[in-house]
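Let's study a protein:

___
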Amino acid sequence: MRNEGRQRGRPRARGLGPRLVLAGLAAWLILIPFSLLLVVAKLPLNDLDAGVAAGLHAYVLDNPGVTRALIVWTDAFGPWPWRIAVIACAGWLLYKGAARAAAWAVTTVTVGGLLGLAIKVIVARARPHLPDPVALAPGDSFPSGHTVNATLGAGVIVLLLLPVLPRWGRRVAWVVAAFLALSVGCTRIALGVHWVSDVVAGLVLGVAVIAATAAAFETWRRDQGRRPASPVTEGVEPESVRALRE
């Protein structure tokens, strides 16, 4: 019976990867209405975008010290630092024997990042053109890649750490993650390299990809016969707590 159960479990375990990728791709559907709103019906988004960009640009021109601080912050929490942090967490999880959580983390960040790049190419929105720019960035504008990756990185790391955090620590972790994602998005607008709607789209895409892949991981867990769990409060794999503490 035990061998039979293992044999039934193997194909389900192998199905985790495709589930996560499909879930990440499905998250793209959430961006379709927002993209159509931007491309087909540009008002009132452009009024909001233009007004905020002009106001913040005037402020940073008058405050060079603030500009330097914004550049340091946006670089410190840019896409590559988040990717490296998630890969380091995944490596630590592999070392501790939590290979499934590691696979979820890497898949979520990879799929989310690729979706963001694909949407940039499809929408092909130009970045703000401001007089006396304080910063420059390559590529298209929508959605903000920094915001997508900050949302993905912060959310993934929190969901990996939740099993080993106390209840009060979980709330603090979510607050810190939200602050980091929002603050990075704000720096992109203030530096004049993104519109407000770019940052909103980046936040929406990041949250959607995490929610989709976490839901796919939870359905896979339940198919394995594990107890139902709430990823928001217990993390994506609560049973990994033993491995992480050893």
